[in-house]
Amino acid sequence: MGTIEAAPLPQPSRAEIRIEAVLAALADPVRLDIVRALAPRPDGIACGEVALTVSPSTRTHHLRTLREAGVISTIPLGTRKISQLRRADLDALFPGLLDGVLAAPH
Amino acid sequence: MGTIEAAPLPQPSRAEIRIEAVLAALADPVRLDIVRALAPRPDGIACGEVALTVSPSTRTHHLRTLREAGVISTIPLGTRKISQLRRADLDALFPGLLDGVLAAPH
């Protein structure tokens, strides 16, 4: 029996990531909070661990927006979903963008 | 008689620039075209010199959105309006952001 590798939820490939979609996904205070929470955790964290003052359905909506834009990757792991920033992809496509966003006063 | 210095159109001070507003202003293909046209021209260019496939009123709208977000500065000079990227302000607040956006494939 081999290891069962969980597949990430649908997401754009690196080549499919568009700068307009990334910027629009980041242009929201709640989604910026999610990105800030994920930034120091390269191995990813369970969505529920991000402290947010929004409802679970709103949280799900924001996570989906980030995933579909190519900002985060989400892997279902049993009953949990582990999300992580796609830093390698974003840094390769838009070098400096993520660091600049994370440096912003808030 | 001294020199009359033209004042820029209303714009946020550096301290008033918000990352969410900057990202939202940049998240549009026409506005990205404007930013790309202004990037290599630190002294600014007249709005009409930016080659765009949109109507004059749409152009004005996009320029205003960029200005109100703090991305560009616009100075009326006689019958012309000269716009320039606020690179010093953006680089100070969000180091890397503008370079990452300008590096994006398009």
CATH class descriptor name of chain A: Mainly Alpha
> Termini separation of chain A (Å)?
49 Å
Structural class of chain A: alpha+beta
Order of helices and strands of chain A: HHEHEEHH
Number of helices of chain A: 5
The total count of strands of chain A amounts to 3
| Major protein interface | A-B, 23 and 23 residues
What is the domain total for the residues of chain A?
Answer: 1
Mean pLDDT of chain A: 91
Radius of gyration of chain A: 14 Å
- In CATH, the topology of chain A is named Arc Repressor Mutant, subunit A
Strand order of the largest sheet of chain A: 1-3-2
Low-confidence stretches of chain A: none
What does this structure look like?
The structure is a homodimer of 106-residue chains. Chain A is α+β, with helices and mostly antiparallel strands and 106 residues long. Chain A has a single domain, classed as Orthogonal Bundle (Arc Repressor Mutant, subunit A), CATH 1.10.10.10. The first copy, chain A, is 42% helix and 13% strand. The first copy, chain A, has a 3-stranded antiparallel sheet, covered by helices on one side. In chain A, strand 2 and strand 3 (80-85) form a beta hairpin. In chain A, helix 1 (19-26) packs antiparallel against helix 3. The longest helix of chain A is centred in the middle third of the chain and has 14 residues, at 56-69. The radius of gyration of chain A is 14 Å and the shape is globular.
Describe the structure in brief.
Two copies of one chain form a homodimer. The first copy, chain A, has five helices and three strands; from the N terminus they run H-H-E-H-E-E-H-H. A three-stranded antiparallel sheet of chain A has the order 1-3-2, with helices on one face.
